[in-house]
Amino acid sequence: MRHLALLLLPLYLVAVLAGIQWVPPIAQDPAYHAFADQREWLGIPNFADVASNLPLLVAGLWGLGTVLTGARTGTGFARAAERRIAGVFFAAVAATAVGSAWYHLAPDNARLFWDRLPLALAFTSLPALLIAERAPITRGAATLLGAWMLVGPASVLYWHIGELAGSSDLRPYFLLHGFMLVLPPLLIALPTPFSHRHLVGIAFVLYLLAMAGDLFDHAVFGWLGGLVSGHTLKHLLVGVATALLVRRLQIRHCRRAEHSQRQSGAG
User: Fold this and answer.
1) Which of 66, 176, 235, 259 has the fewest CB atoms within 10 Å, counting from its CB?
2) Do 192 and 134 meet the contact criterion of CB atoms below 8 Å apart?
3) What is the pLDDT of residues 85-142, one digit of tens each?
4) Cα–Cα dist 92/57, whole Å
5) Is the pLDDT score of 263 beyond 50?
6) What is the pTM of this model?
7) Would 229 be classed as within a structural domain?
8) DSSP string over 109-132
9) For the chain, how many structural domains are there in total?
10) Could you tell me the residue range of the domain that residue 140 belongs to?
11) SS3 of 106, please?
12) What whole-number distance in Å separates Cα of residue 34 and Cα of residue 50?
């Protein structure tokens, strides 16, 4: 697991170099901002896509509160690195909810930057969290893992700076999305000393459904008779997925510790 922490950043950089070599630059499509549900309510434009960020904000703050409580009591985490990364992840989720709500009030490329920046940090911090849960991280591995986490915001900054210069390129950011389809299930499948691993698996399935909802935003809106759009469902599903991760942190227990206690009792 420590070796995987060392490999994440090099693997991503190799993928970026390959992508730059073989795939032409991908500009931001202006049509992306034309979401299915543009209804106004209570004077708030695009109300559903704005308001549906509330569950995500609540879940992110709930998670951050759980991390801070664990830090004060010294419980809930196997090691300090895991606690710090969890704090970064939940703070990024909460910031994503705020950035997304701001973006959906008046969707354009400038506001999209504030939506994607914290989201990309959440993307990279989640695999780091799953790694830190499973094994102690050496100082060198922690440095590379921290650099890997910064890759998320860097990919968004690369797109944003290019956008301002008239040469928009989403390749590094899209590659990050690809990593998020592969890394979490691989890491979830690896052994962990903590219980309730299945909740992380359910959260990942909800994330996949959320991405599908986003992809078929207009189609879902039509299928459901204009009740709710795919993008709105994306926000809600990611909020539930985050809440599952928080709840898992609260109720999980270390099976190794329980095994040692049983062995001591038997002795």
Assistant:
1) 259
2) yes
3) 999 999 999 999 999 999 999 999 999 999 999 999 999 999 999 998 988 877 878 8
4) 10
5) no
6) 0.91
7) no
8) HHHHHHHHHHHHHHHHHHHHHHHH
9) 1
10) 2-23+45-196
11) coil
12) 14
